[in-house]
Amino acid sequence: MIHASLRSLALAPALALGGALALGACAADTSGIGSTPAPAAGETIAVSVGPCFGFCPVYQVSIAPDGAVTFTGERHTEVIGERKAAAGAATYKAVARDLAPFRPVDGTTARVDCEAAITDTSTYTITWTDTAGRQTVATHQSRCSGGPGKALDAVLGTLPEQLGIAGWAKQVTRPGVSRG
């Protein structure tokens, strides 16, 4: 007969493993985030800012390795439509470096974790496209309270100024244009 305390000790590893597996089944796959170095030469980095429940700016911006910036304002931005600017290769390198910790494994899509996400905020999609057209994508729900998502919020908050599009991306509410 095994003493009750010894029996519970023998079961503890199995219970811990089972609990870890159960929790892991609920977690999102973010294993690829931050495990890849900065983008390879020639990759274009694009950031798409999606709608929120209110009047948040909705736009897309990309930067090429030579620093060429393309902005397309879609809704609630000062500029609607496409504009181009030159930010320089040094800006591209800085943006690539700043976003590298959030970059998934090449050719995959992963979500950047938030400790607590607010569901009616803008969604960001960051896409690295190599010269062969292969895409690596990170998605993110803005305004995280903690975790990697909060750090990514800080990086994304600097991008409009860094890319020279702050005036174009500025939030504007126009009469007759609905939320979202």
TrEMBL record:
InterPro entries: DUF6438 (IPR045497). The keyword Aminoacyl-tRNA synthetase does not apply. Keywords: Signal. Residues 1-27 form the signal peptide. Residues 44-148 form the DUF6438 domain. Pfam families: DUF6438. The keyword Signal applies. This is DUF6438 domain-containing protein. It comes from Sphingomonas sanxanigenens DSM 19645 = NX02.
